[in-house]
């Protein structure tokens, strides 16, 4: 290939130009094919080369340049070879470390090269993990392939520790967001990338809760009910469809303000968001982004459409802000915060009404970041998760009429006591809040919390070392339905578990047991009852925990409670007539679910 490599590979079939040029010389000396002879040849060639080099640099500058270029190529090849060897060695060392740490973690034996993939093709991951934890304890491993280690943690105290120490999300999660919405400073895999934005958005959300800068939920309910009635006019509606409408309207109004409620393209926006949600993980699961697939470009086209629509509503926000400022200059200073938390075509120069949240998501974007990326990310995550929660609350209220009636009494009582007329405070609606916690506990947003540590290994208190790059999961459904943490009725709907009599509250928190308050006859309207903080129970994880926990938890619980207070004040939620006795709760993927999603009707209380 080249003169520098000849001494190392004297028998190389590739003849260099240098070798060919000195054919006569070689043929005279290359008669004995022994290694020592080759060494001799090398010395002679080198000598000859020196002579030639000397003369060529003097006589023929072109030749000198050619020699020089050859030397450069050689150097480049050597450097590449060394780098590739280094990278491969690094991979091998990491793999050996992974294997050696994994050996110490208990788990079912894997007989094939592909690990437990055969087992996983027969049962769902949650089922496999349920059996493995039963047999091997609170930390178990599974092999998803020869180099892919999955570690599952089920014991609440260990989960808390793990979720604090493992700061990164799986690369797949970050990639799904990046492919759909561009570079974001929220929802990326690496903690370093999201830390700042998490802090600023978290502060803004908490500030909003403290200052009670609330959204007009009555308007949101009206707007969502308009759509729901439209759908009901064409046929029936189930909890899933109704909750999607409510969650989307609520999130839209939170992020973009009232402009969203009057936006003519809201329905298209919702459909696009849901279509993208269905495909996001599929396209992200390709190791190499499949640019050659037509489907991928169609998906990208949808994402671009969503970007354009987001920019459109942001523009509407701006216009609303401007006209608002012309009429009311007094309250704009209150709202400068959210502007810097989300990022996008910033409205920072514009004064805005209280509930425009998009500006916080759009603020401080760097060059690489997608202008409306964070807004789309929050709409995407917020709509899907909130729809899940709202849907489950609707189903529980429709099937537990007595609880719905009690909540209604609570709302009326709070309303009568409320000083401020336009916005009821939900803090006193204990049973409503308990119902939200219980619905979140019974049907979390996903079956697993997923984490990893991209760079460093870390060791848990029990002495188990989790190697960097391992996929860490918490089987959240198993944890949230574990009898040890929630009592013998763990898989039943019982919101009273989050309520306790004033004197017993501290005992309950101390015992970390939410099994005590199972009395259906409790009247939460009595002042002797208090609401337990669900986060006192380490097994309450619908919003995650630790360094990557959901920053929208408090905000969304307040929001969903206010939404339901506003809805139940005017509507009663009932199962569709004739369906009452046909509902069969089924165990699906270790969770008791009402499947298919129950059909419901909204009956106006004043009708
Ligand atoms: C019912 C509604 C919601 C549920 C059930 C929910 C649940 C979750 C969960 C499980 C996580 C992952 C936590 C972990 O891995 O430990 C998460 C992350 C996150 N949530 Fe939510 N969420 C909801 C609504 C919201 C809303 C409305 C916002 C924003 C306003 C929000 C902002 C975030 C952010 C920014 C993260 C990512 C944190 C990160 O990657 O560092 N969430 N959420």
Automatic annotation (TrEMBL):
Q: Does the keyword Ribosomal protein apply?
A: no
Q: Which domain of life is it from?
A: Eukaryota
Gene3D superfamilies reported in the protein's UniProt record: Cytochrome P450
Give the matching InterPro entries. Cyt_P450 (IPR001128), Cyt_P450_CS (IPR017972), Cyt_P450_E_grp-I (IPR002401), Cyt_P450_sf (IPR036396), Cytochrome_P450_Monoox (IPR050196)
Residue segments, region Disordered? 1-35
Q: Which UniProt keywords apply?
A: Heme, Iron, Metal-binding, Monooxygenase, Oxidoreductase
Whether Oxidoreductase counts among this entry's keywords is yes
Give the Pfam families listed for this entry: p450
Q: Which family does it belong to?
A: Belongs to the cytochrome P450 family.
Q: What's the protein here called?
A: Cytochrome P450
